[in-house]
Amino acid sequence: MTDTAELAREREERLRMIRDSAASLVPPDGDLGRVRRLRFSEPGVDRAAWAEVCAMGWPGLRLGEELGGSGLGMAEYAALLEELGRGLLPEPLIEASLVAPLLPDAEREALLAGEKLVLPAGIAYDEGAMLPQLRDGKLHGEVGHVALGAAADAWLVACDGGLALVERGAEGLRLSQEPTQDGGHLARLRFDATPARALAAPPAALDEAALACAAYLVGLMDAAFER
Questions:
Q1: Is the peptide bond before 43 cis (omega within 30 degrees of 0)?
Q2: DSSP letter, residue 136
Q3: Helices (H) and strands (E) in the chain, counts
Q4: Helices 206-226 and 74-86, packing angle to 10 deg
Q5: What is the DSSP secondary structure assignment for residue 155, as one 8-state letter?
Q6: What angle do CA 88, 71, 90 make, to 5 degrees?
Q7: Which H or E run includes 162?
């Protein structure tokens, strides 16, 4: 019984530390000045803030230590996202955390270090959606509704063969974007024989991303209710 109580105290302390770590980017007083200044700006991501997100180890919080992450559980991840939701953190933490375990070693290390921002494109599409086609290392087709897609250095694109990694500036790539009401944007990627690196099909990682989004929204709603 004592061991159980001690484990519970350790977990509670770990959750408190995770929540406290959010204060560096989400002021306890609820100041949204940084978020407001970033609205409707391009590319829509503050790279200095993103570097701080990565320095805190947040994109790798759920990754195993063997992959360069912290290996913490969903409780810690949800607690962090709830706090970040209270401050409307605009940086694409959930998206980066989704792609981190799917990337090759070098790209994953660059993502976790804040040196390269890789975002998902089309990974959450419904089954039966028209996905780009990968043929002989070239991608054909398009993907829309890529949140903050214009801020990425590369995209992990869902295609008919699984996943394809496309670098910004690749030949045959066209990017357009449209603003969203919250001050961000959605990008559309069009591929015309665009060089791409084929990767394995994604595991069932969307459930964790959905839970993270839910935790973020709970924090947002709590803050709105308090105001």
A1: yes
A2: T
A3: 7, 8
A4: 40
A5: E
A6: 15
A7: strand 162-167
Tokens for 111?
A: 């993502």
Q: How far apart (Å, rounded) are the C-alpha atoms in residues 25 and 82?
A: 13
Length of the chain (residues) = 227
From the list 92, 67, 65, the residue with the least C-alpha distance to 81 is: 92
- What does residue 178 show for φ and ψ, rounded to 5 degrees? -135, 140
Structure-block tokens of residue 36: 């407001």
Contact 158, 147 (CB under 8 A): no
Tens of pLDDT, residue by residue, the chain (227 residues): 567 778 778 888 888 888 888 888 888 777 888 888 888 888 889 999 999 999 999 999 999 999 999 999 999 999 999 999 999 999 999 999 999 999 999 999 999 999 999 999 998 765 557 899 999 999 999 999 999 999 999 999 999 888 999 999 999 999 999 999 988 999 999 999 999 999 976 655 788 999 999 999 999 999 999 98
Residue 70: C-alpha distances to residues 56, 60, 115, 200 (Å): 11, 6, 18, 23
* Structure tokens belonging to residue 202: 């994604």
Neighbours of 35 (CB within 10 A): 18
Q: Decide: 105 and 68 in contact? Cβ < 8 Å.
A: no
What are residue 213's phi and psi, to 5 degrees? -60, -40
3-state secondary structure (DSSP) of residue 218: helix
Tell the residue number behind the tokens 């494109």, with chain if given.
Answer: 121
Q: Determine contact, residues 139/102, Cβ cutoff 8 Å.
A: no
